[in-house]
TrEMBL record:
Phylogenetic classification of the source organism: Eukaryota, Fungi, Fungi incertae sedis, Mucoromycota, Glomeromycotina
One Pfam family recorded for the sequence: DASH_Dad4
Tagged with keyword Zinc: no
Matches recorded under InterPro entries: DASH_Dad4 (IPR013959)
Superkingdom as given in the UniProt entry: Eukaryota
Predominant location: nucleus
Compartments (UniProt record): Chromosome, Centromere, Kinetochore; Cytoplasm, Cytoskeleton, Spindle; Nucleus
Native species: Gigaspora rosea
Protein name: DASH complex subunit DAD4
Length: 80
């Protein structure tokens, strides 16, 4: 009986709270893992968009350059 008087009177409540905390942390971890995988998918999709954007920028720059060259050649031909 002496050991019962030494026991923590709040031990059961503390165990319950600790179990709830552990359970919530596990749930949080699962949600964060799911979120990370979705963010990784979005990053892969965005990487494709970046490559397409670079292709378009290069195409636009080259087309503009070629149009300027053609425009200059036409001006020269008309003046001759």
């Amino acid at each position: 009986m002496a050991t019962k008087s030494v026991e923590n009177p709040h031990e059961e409540q503390q165990k319950t709270l600790l179990n709830r905390i552990v359970s919530n942390v596990k749930k949080l971890n699962d949600v964060l893992e799911d979120m990370n995988s979705r963010i990784q998918e979005i990053n892969e999709y965005n990487r494709d968009i970046v490559v397409l954007s670079q292709f378009w920028t290069n195409y636009n720059r080259n087309a503009t350059f070629n149009l300027m060259i053609l425009s200059n050649n036409e001006k020269i031909d008309y003046n001759e």
